[in-house]
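Re-run with default settings, no changes from the original entry. Doing this only to confirm the output is reproducible before filing.
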Amino acid sequence: MIKLPFAGIKGQTDSRPVQVQVPCMEMYGKTCPVLTEVRPWFKDKSMEDMGRKYWKKKSYIFQGFVTTNPLAEDSTPENPVRRFIIGPQIFNIIRSALMDPEMEEMPTDLVKGVDFRINKTTKGGYADYSTSKWSRRERALDEAERAAIETHGLHNLSDYRPKEPTEAEVKIIAELFAKSVEGEAYDLEQYGQYFRPAGMAYQAKPQVSVPTASPVAAAPVSAPVTATAPVTESAPAPQPTAAATAAPAGDSAKRAEDILKLIRSRQAK
């Protein structure tokens, strides 16, 4: 997903900055109008921070059982085969085991698989999951877990990705991106039926909405899990430099203006 920041809501004088999430078209093997514009920014040191702001944010959809949970839950779902939204840090730990050629059995095997424990700590003021790990001991699914799979079946995880935008919606994404770069407020009346900030209602006739994947709190997961998600590139890492030189404010404004002109000229074509 790509997050597009806006200064506020058009027509609302007391509105705060908002973000609109849109799908990155590369998720569907298509050309993304946002990343097409953003990639060249990483060739210019003064544009790297702006490029990262508009770079795609990756998440991965998993399914499995929660067998140990220190978090209090008001209720438990009828179907114990749960879906999880997993971030890149945990995904990389999971993937390392799945790709390990020395592992005799897949950790997701229903009989000889292993549990995965999510451990959350803090590092530098941010959540850190680097101590999460696979169990060293094999564990087969118990009778209740097998019965749940027989009763409810496993999820088709591809069904939970955002709907692929239409050609018209891709053009809307490009427009929203240009307006975000320009620092405009979000126009709910114009774009609300397509993409809008999370939790914001749009009062209109039949709407065409594109669902977005919302992050969920990752409870400790202990169970063989299955996953489906493409491995995509990360934002280019910043290159070390001997010294950093701040660009004059006037240069930044001129650069943003040039970017907008380029975006608009491409849209016109």
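Strands lie at 2-6, 18-22, 60-64, 82-86, 114-117, 121-123, 126-128, 133-138, 226-228. Residues 2-230+245-268 form a domain with the Replication Fork Single-Stranded DNA Binding Protein fold (CATH 3.90.198).
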